Amino acid sequence: PKEVRARLERIPDADVLHLGLNPKFGRPEWMVLTVLPVPPVQVRPSITLESGERSEDDLTHKLVDVLRINQRLRENRDMGAPQLVVEDLWELLQYHVTTYFDNQTSGIPPARHRSGRPLKTLAQRLKGKDGRFRSNLSGKRVNFSARTVISPDPLLSINEVGVPAEIARGLTVPLEVTAHNQEIARELVKRGPTPPPTEDGRYRCGVNYLIREDGQRIKVMEKNSEACAELLSPGCVVERQLVDGDIVLFNRQPSLHRMSMMAHTVRILPHKTFRFNLCDCPPYNADFD
């Protein structure tokens, strides 16, 4: 590695540009590490087990291995140990550094825990279905979404989606209070989060949260709905529940093309499934099992 780095250092900046690199931000020799980056403890927290023992993170275990072997290598080199011993320790250090970055390198046995479980090191944290990208960035959980089974309803327009009342109570739309809609907003807040249905049994929308002008967020409940209604003033935001005519995004996985996610107007319906017109099945590639 030293010889490789020395050769890369001799490449002039003018030639580095032809390699597609900007010498101000990245030179070729930087790809050969001379120091090992150690992540902060927030990245590798230790946990306390029920028995009271402390259990360290897999990355910490690997860093301890690297430090220990590095110390032994330095001691043997300084004491003038045989070349064979020094080379063995050098190879062991290489092994620990390699498995610290990627514990699934082909041709190298994986580093294991005392229990026999392979250690989960840097590459394993990032790649794959349960890695940082696919699990926590591309596929993170979000607010203002709901998921359930779909059913056909030929009486709905192709622009509509039938939403169960139970789901409509959990999905909210921010309503900014102004002098013009203050009384309507106050009436909604007075209903609370679970208003009774109308005389003909139809769904009535309520309010889940009230956000005041100072940013204070108040959860509206049956017992405090009247008090919340009194606090209402222009500038507040009322998080009202879904009503007929609201526009929502409807998506079916796998999202293969842009018609896998389309906007529909809401129709609140009884029962517990999303309903939509049969003509909407082909773009979503949906069926009713």
TrEMBL record:
One Gene Ontology MF term: DNA-directed RNA polymerase activity
EC category name: transferase
Enzyme Commission code: 2.7.7.6
Domain RNA polymerase N-terminal stretches: 29-289
One GO term describing the cellular component: DNA-directed RNA polymerase complex
Signal peptide range in chain numbering: none
Cited InterPro entries: DNA-dir_RpoC_beta_prime, RNA_pol_asu, RNA_pol_N, RNA_pol_Rpb1_1, RNA_pol_Rpb1_clamp_domain
GO biological process terms held by the UniProt record: DNA-templated transcription
Family matches, as Pfam families: RNA_pol_Rpb1_1, RNA_pol_Rpb1_2
Keywords tagged on the record: DNA-directed RNA polymerase, Nucleotidyltransferase, Transcription, Transferase
TM regions (residue ranges): none
Regions annotated as coiled coil: none
Record protein name field: DNA-directed RNA polymerase
